[in-house]
Specification:
Blueprint (H helix, E strand, L loop, with lengths): L1 H21 L10 H9 L1 H7 L1 H11 L2
Length: 63
Amino acid sequence: MGFLVGVLLAVIYGGGAWKFWKGFRRTNFDPSLGNRIVLASLWPILLIANKSYRQNFQKALKG
């Protein structure tokens, strides 16, 4: 059971990072590769902690 939860969380994390990466051009963030990597990899933490990131994350997912 724990294994399935881990797999599910990994799929959700990977899916969120992928969707954000693909829609990054719709955000207001600086388009540098380093910035893109950091923001895509830290999306769960930033989504909870930062209102501006939440708004940009939603922009990235639309489309």
